[in-house]
Write a structure and sequence with these properties.
Two copies of one chain form a homodimer. Chain A has 209 residues and is mainly α. The N and C termini of chain A lie far apart (36 Å). The first copy, chain A, has one domain: Ferritin, core subunit, four-helix bundle (Ferritin), CATH 1.20.1260. Chain A is 70% helix and 0% strand. The interface between A and B is medium-sized, with 26 and 26 residues.
C-alpha cells in the first residue's frame, strides 16, 4: 500500500465498522449527496481560516490550494450526481464534525492548532472510508474513490504538518483526546446515515434525518 | 483590443477617474494587500452561493470553478506581497461592495439575480482597473495585471450570463439602477484608498482607514 495511505490508517484510532460499509452500499444516493456537501464544507472551513489568519503566510498558501482541490472534488461529485440522475439537495449534518469541533479550544494558538488537528482527523477518516468504499461500491464509483483517496491522504498530511508548525507545545495530548472522541463518533450507532456518521442504528429509517 | 475586454468597458457606466490611478501608483502596498483581500472575498461570495443554491446545477459548477480561480489569484497576489516584503494584514473594506449589496433584493429569485449582477459589476470594474493599472505600475506588476485582466473579463461574462439564466424578467432595469450606484461609488471622493474605492479625497491620509 502507498505510504501516505498507510500513514492515514496508522493515525486513526479505529477502523470504520463493517456495518457502515454495508449501509453505504444500500444508501448510495445519500452517500454521494452528503459527500458533495462535505467537499464544499471542507473548502468553506479552509477559506474561513484564510480570513482569520492573515499573518500566517505558509498557512494561507497551503489552505488556499487545499480549498481549490476540495472545490474540484465538489465539482466531480456533483457531476457524478447529475450523471446518475440523483438530486443534489440539502441534508442535515451528521454529528461528526460538530462533535469534533466541540473540542476545539477558544484560546489562540490552541484554537488554530485544534482546528488544524480536526482537519487532519476528518481528512484521514474520509480517506479510510474511501479505501473501504472501493471494495463495496460498483466499479465506476470504486475507481472514483480510489483517485480521491490519495488526495485526501495528502490533505491529512498537510493539516497535520500545519498543526505541528503552529503549535507552541506538543500536539500529542490534545490529538489523543480528539481521536478518542472521533472513535466514538464513528463507531457508536447514529441517527442518520452520512459520510462521516456512525453505523445507522437499527430500526431507524435512512435518508434525510 | 480583445473582444472580452471591449465588452467589459462597454458594460461599465464610466471610467475610473485618472486621480485614482495616480493614487494607485503611490499606494502600491495598500493596493496589493486590498487586492489579495478582494480575491479571497470573491471566492467567499461564490462559495456562499454554493451553499444557498443547491438546486441550481449549472450555477454550482460555474461558481465552484470561478471560486477556484479567485483562490489561485489570491495565492498569486499573496506570493507577490511576500516577494516584495509587504506585510499582508487586515484592512477595512471599502464602501464599494457594501454599497452595491444594499441594492440586492431580499426576495428570490431577484436576490440571486441581483447578487449575480453585483458579481458581474465587481468583476467588470476590477478588469477595467487592471487594464488602467498596466499603464501606471512598474513592469512586473503591469505584466501581472495584464494576465489577470483576461480572467476577470471571463468572470464578468460568467456572472452576467448566470444572471440572465436565472432571471424571471428582463435584467436591464435593475442593472441600470445598480450601475448608477456603481458610478457614484467609483467616482465620488472616498475616505480610504482601496482597490474598489473612489479617488481618495484630498487632505485625508491614505492607508488603514
Amino acid at each position: 500500500m502507498d505510504a501516505d495511505l498507510q500513514a492515514v490508517l496508522e493515525f486513526l484510532p479505529c477502523r470504520t465498522p463493517a456495518l457502515w460499509f454495508e449501509q453505504a452500499r444500500t444508501n448510495v444516493p445519500t452517500l454521494l449527496v452528503d459527500h458533495a456537501h462535505c467537499e464544499k464544507k471542507a473548502a468553506g472551513t479552509a477559506l474561513s481560516l484564510l480570513f482569520r489568519y492573515v499573518d500566517h503566510p505558509h498557512l494561507l498558501q497551503s489552505l488556499s490550494r487545499l480549498a481549490r482541490e476540495e472545490l474540484r472534488h465538489f465539482e466531480q461529485v456533483h457531476k457524478l450526481l447529475q450523471d446518475k440522475g440523483i438530486a443534489y439537495k440539502h441534508l442535515s449534518s451528521s454529528r461528526y464534525a460538530s462533535g469534533l469541533r466541540e473540542r476545539v479550544s477558544r484560546v489562540e494558538p490552541d484554537r488554530l492548532v485544534d482546528t488544524l488537528l480536526t482537519g487532519a482527523i476528518v481528512e484521514a477518516r474520509s480517506c479510510e472510508r474511501f479505501l473501504g468504499l472501493i471494495k463495496v461500491l460498483p466499479a465506476d464509483l470504486a475507481e472514483f474513490y480510489r483517485l480521491l483517496a490519495l488526495s485526501e491522504a495528502r490533505h491529512f498530511a498537510d493539516y497535520l504538518s500545519l498543526a505541528q508548525r503552529y503549535a507552541d507545545k506538543p500536539i500529542q495530548p490534545k490529538l489523543e483526546e480528539m481521536l478518542k472522541v472521533e472513535a466514538r463518533l464513528v463507531c457508536e450507532p447514529d441517527i442518520s446515515f452520512r459520510f462521516h456518521s456512525g453505523p445507522l442504528a437499527e430500526n431507524i429509517p435512512t435518508g434525510a434525518g
